[in-house]
Each structure stands twice: as structure tokens, then as C-alpha cells.
Amino acid sequence: MIDFYYWPTPNGWKVSIMLEECGIEYRMIPVNIGRGDQFKPEFLAISPNNRMPAIVDHDAPREFGDGPVPVFESGAILIHLAERTGHFMPQTRRGRKETLEWLFWQVGNLGPMAGQLSHFVNYAPGEHRYSHKRYADEYNRCLGVLERRLDGREFILDEYSIADMAAWPWVLIAKPLGQLLDEFPNVARWRETIKERPAVQAAVDLGKDLRRSAPPGEDERRVLFNQTARDVLRRS
Fold first, then answer.
1. Which of 135, 137, 201, 136 is nearest to 168 (CA)?
2. Tens digits of per-residue pLDDT, 154-166?
3. 25-29, 121-125, 159-163 — which is least confidently predicted?
4. pLDDT of residue 100
5. Cα 15 to the center of its chain, rounded Å
6. Which of 189, 188, 187, 176 is nearest to 228 (CA)?
7. What is the C-alpha separation between 146 and 102, in angstroms, rounded?
8. Facing residues of 186 across strands?
């Protein structure tokens, strides 16, 4: 059994996709990041960087020692679950190397650039033209990197993997961030292919009821973005 500390965001979706794809039994524990649940001592004991997602693996291999095993950071969770199940990571050394390269690319480039762009599109008060342009350009650049990688490939690696699961949620929300995919046909095709997977649809739907009312103090732009994210699978 996995305890899955989650809120419906692109980083949360990375792990919910993996759990659904692997058919692992899990219990979803909401972490309402709008109300500050991520700063509660009981959550910080699992995720010291006060970020979700995080998991507690109650059935980890014996080499981890006795008792449940906590894992924080979405990339580390994906690696842990891939190694635990033997799924969605190549078994060859070369394949593992490429998986880690693209996983680290996502957590160090695509995700942070999209996240910062989202901040200036949806949350920051006032005009921030320089910041908005900077992160929009970087997000666009990252999509170009992915476009080149997907030239002649169905997925980021030779087969569907945790590299795809990590990157896909941050491309799913491209339209709400103001980025069309017309100039990235390989990315658009890849996005659509993964979107059709039943496990992916179930993963993005996870916790959809949590988003129906915004936490106290959220402004209208955040409410609108959450509504858009909730419905993006159906309307995009």
C-alpha cells in the first residue's frame, strides 16, 4: 500500500499517472496547498522541502530496512516506483541513463519554467512584462527541445516511460499558459497519444472534486486557472 500525498497539479499528476499505470494500491491523502497543508509538521516529516507530491511506501523491499519508507520529490518517487515494480524504466544501462537524463531535464527545465510562467500568468498581481516574457520564452525553448527529441519517436525513449509521465503534465497545460502547439507537431502528437491512455485520464481526474471550490483568499485568476486545468483533458 502507498500513502499518496497529493493535490491536483502537474507535479501531482506525474505520480498519480505512475500509480494508475502500474495498478499499485494506494490511498490518496489530500495536501491542500492553498491552505498551507504542506507546512504542517506531519507532512514536513515526510517531505522536508514542504512540497507535494510525496509518498509513504508500506511495502518497500526489505533492503530499505524495517518500517514504511517515505519518498519526496516527484522525480525520486517515479524512480522509486519504477525500480520497485520493474515497469516504465528500461533495464539496460543505456536505457536507464537516458531515462535519468530526460527525467532530470524535466525537473530542472520544463517543469520550473512552466511553473514560473504559470505564476506570472495566473497569480502575480500587476504587470510583469519582462518576467512573463522571460518564462514564456523559456517554456517555448523547452518545448523545442522536446520537439526535436520526438522527431521520429513515439515517446521520449524507445517505449513509454517515466520520462513521458514526468514531462506530459507540463505540456498538457500549455494552452492555459498561452502556448499553442502549432509550431510543435511532434509534441502535439505525443501529447494526444498519452492523453488517450485510460490510466492517464484516471490520474488527471484524481481529486477533481478537491478543485471545485478555491481555498479562502484565492483571487479570480487562480480560480479560473484551476477550472481550466480540471477540464483540460475534455476540452483540449
1. 201
2. 999 999 999 999 9
3. 121-125
4. 98
5. 7
6. 176
7. 10
8. none
